[in-house]
Amino acid sequence: MEYFKKIGKVAIPAAALLLPFMSLALDPLPAPIGPGSAWTVDRIESLIERIGNFMIFIGIIIAVIYIIWGGIKYMTAGGDAKKAEEARGAILNGIIGAAVVLGVGVILRTAAALITGTFFGV
User: Which class for 88: exposed (0-12), middle (13-18), buried (19 or more C-beta within 10 A)?
Assistant: First the structure.
C-alpha cells in the first residue's frame, strides 16, 4: 500500500502538469475562428469615438432626468423650505452634471483632433 502512495504522490502531479500538452497532441496550433478582418487604427478610433459619444449621450440623458426630478420635487414641496432647498440643490446638481459631461465631450474631441492632426487643418 505504501508503494501505491509513493507512486500516487509523483504520478498525479505529473499527470496534472502534462494534461495541457496531451490535450493539444492532435493539433498544437488551432486555426483561428471565423474569417474576421484585421483591426486597424481607423477601426479602433471609430470604436472609441462611438463609445465616447454613447457615454456622453447617456450622461446628458441622466442629467436631464435629474433636473426634471428636481423640478418635480420643487413643485411638490408645498411651501416646505427644506424640501424646496433640496429640490433647488438637485436642479443645480443636474445642471452642473450636464455642464461637466459636455465639457468632457469638448475635451475629448479636442484631444482627438490634436492627436489625429486635424485640429489645425493640417
Answer: middle
In a domain, 122, yes or no: no
Tell me the angle at which helices 41-75 and 81-116 cross, rounded to the nearest 10 degrees. Answer: 170
Residue 67 lies in a domain: yes
Number of domains forming the structure of the chain = 1
Residue 108, domain member (yes or no)? yes
Domain holding 102, by residue range, is 39-116
How far from 84 is each of 61, 89, 93, CA to CA, in Å?
23, 9, 14
Reported as a single tens digit per residue, the pLDDT across 41-57 is 777 777 878 888 888 89
HEC per residue, 25-48 = CCCCCCCCCCCCCCCCHHHHHHHH
